[in-house]
Amino acid sequence: MPMSHLLALSYAGLSALPIAMHFAIVAGAPLGRFTVGGRFPGQLPPSWRVLAGVQAGLLALMALAVLARAEVVFVPIRFLFWPAVALTAVSLLANAASPSRPERLLWTPVLAFMALAALGVGLV
Fold first, then answer.
1. Among 1, 9, 31, 65, which is least packed, fewest CB within 10 Å?
2. CA torsion, ordered 2, 76, 82, 96, to nearest 10 deg
3. In the prediction, which pLDDT does 71 show?
4. d(C-alpha 106, C-alpha 21), whole Å
5. Rounded to whole angstroms, how far apart are CA atoms 113 and 5?
6. What would the mean pLDDT of 11-24 be, rounded to a whole number?
7. Angle at the Cα of 35 (from 32 to 37), degrees rounded to 5?
8. CA 63 – CA 87 distance, rounded (Å)
9. Coil, strand or helix: which one is 39?
């Protein structure tokens, strides 16, 4: 398996973690301490749960762009690859600076590995 495929599949696999969390939040799971800086320690208000759904969709699109760049899938969104890398890096910085300790501890390492995998896809 080419290295770019392995890295892209790693990115997609890791992105499944926050996607799953966001879907759980949409469904009403009390996971607020792991997102939006821990502003809502339990269940997020309805408008924030809608935004969690949007974020899940965005993360899925980003994963698809990374997979497309590595030619694991053939969809016409390769042009979204570098914006996906940039958004991953911004998300990494935001989560690393979060006032929520659980959010920092959980998502900083996940996003760091996602960012490294995406950069690897771009540079391989």
1. 1
2. -80
3. 97
4. 11
5. 15
6. 98
7. 100
8. 11
9. coil
Amino acid at 102: P
Alpha helices (runs of H) in the chain, residue ranges in sequence order = 3-26, 46-69, 81-96, 101-123
Q: What is the pLDDT of residue 95?
A: 96
* Coil/strand/helix, residue 76: coil
How many domains is the chain partitioned into structurally? 1
**Domain of residue 59, residue span:** 3-123
CA 123 to chain centre: 20
Average pLDDT of span 2-12: 98
The tokens for 22 are 């966001």
Smallest CA-to-CA distance from 52 within 65, 68, 34 is with 34
CA distance 19 to 21: 5
